[in-house]
Design brief:
Helix content is 46%, strand content 15%. The protein folds into 3 domains: 143 residues, 3-Layer(aba) Sandwich (Rossmann fold); 208 residues, Rossmann fold (3-Layer(aba) Sandwich); 41 residues, no CATH class. The chain has a 6-stranded parallel β-sheet with strand order 1-11-10-9-12-13, with helices on both faces. The chain is built from 18 helices and 14 strands. By secondary structure, it is an alpha/beta fold. It is globular. It catalyses: L-histidinol + 2 NAD(+) + H2O = L-histidine + 2 NADH + 3 H(+). It comes from Desulfosporosinus fructosivorans.
């Protein structure tokens, strides 16, 4: 890879990937969802055998309590301790987000307000495939728990032996998941959206997945709510001459190893630092277990961009709107006020992206593909709905009736106007005469 000048870079390559614009693939997903909607669990069994080569009739669709308890025997004490510490951090962070309902009385006797209510039943998708993510269980389920959701349903594709990873099952139990099913892909989304003979549908689906999952979430939106359409992982690092190449290379590869379509971008006004970091990336790739995936990502969607100064780099970051943004400069807090379009910002060399992925507390389900311009990380509000409260008094309605009726008639809606006026019969009858 060569260093690119900011004037020469192709932003489309870095921000808009060909991910989900295949009409044939969209139709295949639609066909899968149709089968689940019409044939229920029979379709789930057939599709899981077809795509995952698993016979759920033998291994069971729902994970049993015995399987969950057995999973605890298969994980280390160190893992359990680390996960429970992460759980406490995530809960503590998200508990600060919770808001309460409010009612505001007016001197005229009216009451206006808003009810904040948890959703009743939500579904979370936990990826399998090339990697398994117990951290995704915590990040999706714990905000729902804080919101007050009573039923949390998890789906995840089974392994070759028809089981789920023990760490994923333990994370589900620790996070308060109430039901776990061994089904993934578009059919897993279908199960959550439509339900089956024995599984009730959910109100909302959250969690990232592959292209089939993303397109399935897109197609069931409106039947259920979804969190976002998650694309491949992204990181952009803005760094000055104080950066350390070995640390920067490791941070870039921490995202590149996720997916061949992931993007890792390094931006700096220091050409020597960019050159040293590129060499370090090559060195670290040599013994990286997921080197094939990381190299494909790095060569297709990676970049080392030379800018004139940090301000130009910050402007570029806000334009690209990356999922993860590391600000590795001498005084990162002095730049925080200029951060606008990123999913999460990591300040300084001691805040590498994996701290946020696993442990610090903020959610790692973040907007991708430039959607950080208008979208937020998964949070407690994701699992709540708001209900407006309107309690007008007689005096208030009498005061406002004329203007309400005028606005209704300006839209040609006579019945709307009469619904107000009829409450003051004399005026209504006078109008009728």
């Amino acid at each position: 890879m060569k260093i690119e000048n900011i004037k020469d870079i192709d932003l489309n390559r870095l921000t808009r990937k060909s991910y989900g614009d295949d009409a044939n693939l969209e139709q295949r997903v639609a066909d899968i969802l149709k089968r689940v909607r019409e044939d229920g669990e029979e379709a789930v069994y057939q599709l899981t055998e077809e795509f995952d080569h698993n016979n759920l009739r033998l291994s069971g669709l729902r994970v049993s309590e015995e399987e969950i308890q057995g999973a605890y025997q298969d994980v280390s004490k160190d893992f359990l301790e680390a996960m429970r510490t992460a759980k406490r951090n995530i809960l503590r962070y998200h508990e600060k987000q919770k808001r309460t309902s409010w009612l505001e009385p007016d001197p005229d006797g009216s009451i206006l307000g808003q009810l904040l209510l948890p959703l009743k039943r939500v579904g979370i998708y936990v990826p399998g495939g090339t990697a398994s993510y117990p951290s995704s269980v915590l990040m999706n389920a714990l905000p729902a728990v804080v919101a007050g959701v009573k039923e949390i349903v998890m789906v995840s594709p089974p392994r070759a032996d028809g089981t789920l990873l023990p760490e994923v099952l333990v994370a589900a139990a620790e996070a308060g998941v109430t039901e776990v099913y061994k089904v993934g892909g578009a059919q897993g989304i279908g199960v959550l959206a439509f339900g089956t003979e024995t599984i009730s549908p959910v109100d909302k689906i959250t969690g990232p997945g592959n292209i089939y999952v993303t397109l399935a979430k897109k197609q069931v939106f409106g039947i259920v709510d979804i969190d976002m359409l998650a694309g491949p992982s992204e990181i952009l690092i803005l760094v000055d001459e104080t950066g350390r190449p070995e640390e920067l290379a490791a941070d870039l590869l921490s995202q590149a190893e996720h997916d061949r379509l992931a993007s890792a971008i390094l931006v700096s006004p220091s050409r020597p630092l960019l050159e040293q970091t590129l060499l370090e990336v090559e060195r670290q790739l040599k013994d990286l277990p997921r080197a094939e995936i990381a190299r494909a990502s790095w060569e297709s969607y990676g970049a080392a961009i030379l800018v004139s100064d940090l301000q130009e780099g910050m402007d570029l970051a806000n334009k690209i709107a990356p999922e993860h943004f590391e600000l590795v400069v001498e005084d990162p807090y002095s730049w925080l006020g200029q951060v606008r379009n990123v999913g999460a910002v990591f300040l300084g060399r001691y805040s590498p992206e994996p701290v946020g992925d696993y442990f610090a507390g903020p959610n790692h389900v973040l907007p991708t593909g430039g959607t950080a311009r208008f979208y937020s990380p998964l949070n407690v509000d994701t699992f709540m709905k708001k209900v407006s409260v309107i309690g007008y008094s007689e005096a208030a309605l009498k005061r406002d009736a004329k203007q309400i009726a005028l606005l209704a008639r300006s839209e040609g809606l006579e019945a709307h106007a009469r619904a107000v006026e009829v409450r003051f019969k004399e005026k209504f009858e006078e109008r009728e005469r």
